[in-house]
Write a structure and sequence with these properties.
With 188 residues, the protein is mainly alpha-helical. It is 65% helix and 2% strand. A two-stranded antiparallel sheet has the order 1-2. The longest helix is centred in the C-terminal third of the chain and has 17 residues. The termini are far apart.
């Protein structure tokens, strides 16, 4: 994960409040958090630097990439927070009136990075124990299926099968509602 963090020129990227050179430290703090309070503090700081009312910033694709890498090393206190940040990036948008308000960023670049974590989202949905993590994975599986036509049928398959599983019964209505969008695109 540290190699992934080194790959980006964080000091050259812009967040909603300007410079984000401390992002690698915050990502490491989140991924390696020793307790829930530490994980929440890192997540809050990341959120304040990256998002404003759902608007993406220039650092969003690099952050998505780092968070996907961080999933493989996450602690128990940070899994749902990492997945929540990834879901926020996947659901984010660019200001149509000023697409460079928070630096040059595209939804497509963000989704491309989020989609790189697709296998992890499926596995966490299937085997995870944290309800917030599983719910975020449902959103991420849908967003990836919408963003990448190669994942659309796969997303529908995994979500249909998830509905049938007794251990995922509490998510049934969320999953069924979530299936409407990829099915509409598939049929359209």
């Amino acid at each position: 994960m540290e190699l992934e963090l080194m790959r980006h020129s964080w000091a050259d990227l812009q967040g909603v409040g300007g410079e984000v050179g401390m992002m690698p430290r915050l990502v490491l703090d989140l991924v390696r958090a020793k307790d829930r309070a530490q994980a929440e503090e890192a997540c809050t700081r990341i959120n304040s630097l990256v998002f404003w009312n759902g608007l993406l910033s220039q650092v969003s694709p690099a952050l998505a990439s780092a968070l996907v890498h961080g999933l493989w090393h996450r602690g128990e206190h940070s899994e749902d927070l990492i997945l929540g940040l990834l879901a926020d990036i996947a659901g984010g948008f660019v200001d149509e009136r000023d697409s460079t308000a928070f630096g040059e960023v595209s939804v497509e670049d963000c989704l491309r990075e989020v989609c790189r974590g697709y296998p992890a989202y499926v596995e966490i949905l299937e085997t995870g124990v944290n309800a917030d993590s599983r719910t975020a994975c449902i959103d991420l599986i849908v967003q990836c299926g919408l963003a990448d036509s190669g994942l659309r049928d796969r997303s529908i398959f995994f979500l249909v099968e998830a509905v049938r599983r007794a251990d995922l019964a509490q998510y049934r209505s969320v999953i069924e509602d979530s299936l409407n969008e990829p099915r509409a695109v598939e049929g359209g």
